[in-house]
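@channel anyone free to eyeball this complex?
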Amino acid sequence: MEYVAEPIPEGYTGVVADEHHHDYAGDTVFGFWVYILSDCILFAVLFAVYAVIGQEFAGQITAKELFELDYVLMETALLLFSSFTFGMAILCANAEDRRGLFTWLGATGLLGAGFLAMELNEFVHFTHEGAAPWTSGAWSAFYGLIGTHGLHVFGGMVWLIFLAIRLHREGLTTENRTRLMCLSLFWHFLDIIWICVFSVVYLMGVL
Amino acid sequence: MAHQSAGGAAHGSVREYVNGLMLSLLLTAIPFGIVMTSGLNRPMTVAIILVCAVAQVLVQLIFFLHMNTSSEQSWNVMSAVFVVVLVAILIIGSIWIMNHLNHNMLLGH
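replying in thread with the prediction:
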């Protein structure tokens, strides 16, 4: 029997990008969600390291002597409120409220910057007090975990600035909405990691 | 009420975010307050810290990330549950193995 190829439909180009347009945003956000979950595993490894060597101070200065809980509470509040303001920004984007969107994104950026500044200040202070990343296993684990979280927040800030520029230039296009959605997932995720950080590292660290 | 977009990513409402914020503030204040002011015994304090942390993670997943059990979200939730299992194995397994090793190394003492 001879195989007869079906005739190629009119207008068929082989490019499927346009045909799947409606799934694009959802697929991208789901893909980003999978990235976030893989990032969870990265943090899980760092938490496991902290759980194993987080109390090995090698006779050097301990966490108990340095941690100041009211300072950590302030950091926590900044990050929690920035997570909330990002949620408000998303609601404004859904309601096509550009002014609200930029206001809430600006608030998120400021709160995030405040958090990063406090964290950097803490690192400098700790290092001056004799708790540098190379001081002991415990401090290596501390800086490894908190530093990785801080780097993520920094990355989120850079992303936020570039996305704000794009939103300003191009407005709320489908692509920009998807980007905004991904960044909001990322931002909320960082706050969720911080819950684990302040509970396990700071609160349990001073007990 | 949250409504779904094409990709299953739900959008919240102001009320949802405010509720999430209030619950998160409460679940942050409780462990900080207990550690900073009260002289509760150690195991009890650790238990309260852990319970509040897990509760706050759930609160943020539900109120900020709008996770739910609707069919549009089944892949999001399923992949997340898979990762939770992985994370549990990683962390509990590490602590378990390293404690055993530590114990064995102490035989000479």
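from a first look: Chain B touches chain A through 45 residues (CB under 8 Å).
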